[in-house]
Amino acid sequence: MENENYEVNDYTFLLEESVEQHFANINILLLSGKHIDHKYYSEYTVLESYESQWKFFYQNLYKLNLVDDIFDGSRYYYLGFTENGKGKLSDVSRNKELTELQTLIGLTLLDMYYQKYFDEEKVIYWNDIKTQILESDHQEAYKRILFNDIRDSYDEKEWSEVHTKFGKTIDNFDRLGWVEKQSGRNEELLFEIRPAIHRLAKLYNEELQNFESFSKQLKNDETV
Question: Minimal CA–CA distance to 137: which of 164, 160, 169, 115?
Fold first, then answer.
């Protein structure tokens, strides 16, 4: 990592070969909301090697903070908004808050991450999600919101609708770098939860601390 004990005030680092090679991809990923960890090895390495310069670049040109965060021993980078607003991404079309249903699913995945805390890779199968819904401490909230009814079992059509809701949210979280979709044998929904999912704990700390109260305010929203 670059020494940060001096002031960075120019863009000469952009002329470095590694930066030139990966600049476009890094910029597109970060501006699209991606959280970049070591899974994106080349982009991550360039960000880490010139961290101070990148921070100056985004603060000066975009009025955005390049944030480096660490969770579960893994560092990741993303663009955060300044205290004064959302910088040059303030246009509604450029930033979209999570829906209530996406938030619920995100908090569900965060809980599942902690359950697999000692696993090197937090790989989730559809059956893991079904078990979480049916047997976790928050099962009544999950059932009420996802199925609009609290029962011991649900039919195939009902599960299919919940699968669709999760699938759309997983697609969105994959674009953010909170999960990484995987292909698997006979698996329609298979993904790894990445450490960046922990950002949800920061964004929705109040909801986490008062989950039951939060969940009671949610409606069965078909729009993901």
Answer: 115
User: Which tokens sit at 103?
Assistant: 């938030």
Chain-centroid distance of CA 71 in Å reads 13
d(CA 145, CA 149): 8
User: In the CATH scheme, what is the code of domain 12-94?
Assistant: 1.10.10
What digits encode the pLDDT tens for the residues 54-86? 999 999 999 999 999 999 999 999 998 644 434
Delimit the domains of the chain by residue range.
Answer: 12-94, 100-217
SS3 193: strand
CATH code for 100-217?
1.10.10.2260
* 65 DSSP β-pair partners: 80
50 half-sphere exposure, CB direction, 13 A CA radius: 24
Helices 156-176 and 100-115 pack at an angle, to 10 degrees, of 80
